[in-house]
């Protein structure tokens, strides 16, 4: 049994969720099973067609005159990409139609939330946070916005990429960030900007944020994992109280030491949590939607995110 499953607050909330699941979520998931089977049939047909026709087309191309000018390779690559896109089509369309039917009710167990498939946090907010290096492509997946315990929250799965050309003119792609961004609108506003980045030890020289100064804090443990930058040293120390730093270290442990970074700007706190895990997947394409392991996993993901509000005491108007 995990440490989370031994927590009394978690157990009480999980019991209430199980009742909510049986009453509200399970009937919706049961209805989506028919759609899942339909899209699985479409997927199976495309697979069979690919198995029969793809090798035959490739063999025909290899015997054609295209082979003389080496353009055969490009044609086969293009054909392969087309086949992959066709196979991914039913999976994408299934998620696009089914997730908006279940995820609003899922999130509303915790508070009052709206859901948008392929939505994302405003790009201007992400850029003003100074948490990410240069990027020119932003891709959203699941996006939630609403109120939990009196705090307005936006949650977005984000992929940030930098697309550019090398000296030969070939397109190259750099993954800048992949994970979950959580935006909290707090009960206080800030005059300046304070950015807390992962401590990169000898590479901290590359951590510098334009217009901000490094802030040295007295908490040795916090300084071990984070580097703080701000345009207002006094406000940075007001925000990063001893209690807040202790809670942020607990949050870091909660996410198993991942490279959490966060930023204070205006009345907002933005957390960036990198993860390769595909979050909020209550619906499965290849497994039954009534497999409760899916919903329990998503419940734990939501619980972990919303516990940040109480952990960091964001719902309080007093000092942090």
The number of helices is 7
Through-space gap between termini: 32 Å
SSE arrangement, N to C: HHEHEEEEEHEHHEEH
What general outline do the C-alpha atoms trace?
flat
Largest sheet: 9 strands, antiparallel
Which range best describes the helical content: under 10%, 10-25%, 25-40%, 40-55%, 55-70% or over 70%? 40-55%
- Overall mean pLDDT score? 86
Which structural class is indicated by helix and strand composition?
A: alpha+beta
What is the number of strand segments?
9
Uncertain residue ranges: none
Describe the strand arrangement of the main beta sheet, using strand numbers: 1-2-3-4-9-8-5-7-6
Task: Provide the gyration radius in Å.
Answer: 24 Å
Measured by DSSP, the beta-strand proportion falls in 15-25%
Textual characterization of the structure:
This protein is of the alpha+beta class and 320 residues long. It is 45% helix and 23% strand. The protein has seven helices and nine strands, in the order H-H-E-H-E-E-E-E-E-H-E-H-H-E-E-H. A nine-stranded antiparallel sheet has the order 1-2-3-4-9-8-5-7-6. Helix 1 (8-62) runs antiparallel to helix 2 (72-107). The longest helix is centred in the N-terminal third of the chain and has 55 residues, at 8-62. It is flat.
């Amino acid at each position: 049994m995990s440490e989370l499953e031994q927590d009394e607050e978690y157990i009480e909330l999980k019991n209430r969720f199980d009742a909510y699941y049986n009453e509200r979520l399970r009937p919706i998931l049961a209805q989506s099973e028919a759609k899942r089977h339909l899209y699985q049939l479409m997927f199976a047909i495309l697979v069979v067609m690919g198995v029969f026709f793809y090798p035959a087309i490739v063999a025909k191309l290899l015997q054609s005159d295209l082979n003389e000018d080496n353009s055969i390779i490009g044609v086969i690559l293009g054909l392969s990409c087309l086949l992959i896109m066709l196979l991914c089509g039913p999976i994408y369309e299934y998620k696009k139609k089914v997730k908006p039917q279940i995820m609003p009710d899922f999130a509303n167990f915790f508070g009052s939330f709206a859901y948008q498939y392929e939505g994302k946090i405003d790009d201007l907010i992400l850029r003003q946070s100074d948490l990410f290096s240069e990027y020119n492509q932003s891709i959203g997946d699941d996006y939630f916005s609403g109120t939990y315990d009196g705090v307005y929250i936006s949650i977005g799965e984000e992929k940030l990429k930098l697309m550019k050309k090398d000296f030969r003119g070939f397109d190259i792609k750099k993954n800048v960030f992949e994970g979950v961004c959580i935006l909290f609108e707090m009960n206080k506003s800030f005059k300046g900007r304070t950015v807390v980045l992962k401590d990169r030890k000898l590479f901290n020289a590359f951590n510098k944020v334009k217009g901000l100064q490094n802030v040295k804090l007295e908490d040795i443990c916090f300084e071990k994992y984070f580097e703080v930058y701000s345009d207002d040293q006094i406000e940075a120390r007001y925000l990063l109280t001893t209690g807040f730093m202790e809670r942020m270290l607990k949050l870091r442990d909660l996410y198993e030491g991942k490279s959490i970074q966060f930023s204070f700007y205006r009345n907002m706190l933005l957390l960036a949590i990198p993860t390769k895990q595909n979050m909020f997947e209550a619906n499965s394409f290849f497994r039954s939607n009534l497999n409760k392991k899916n919903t329990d996993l998503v419940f734990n993901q939501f619980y972990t995110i919303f516990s940040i509000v109480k952990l960091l005491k964001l719902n309080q108007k007093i000092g942090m």
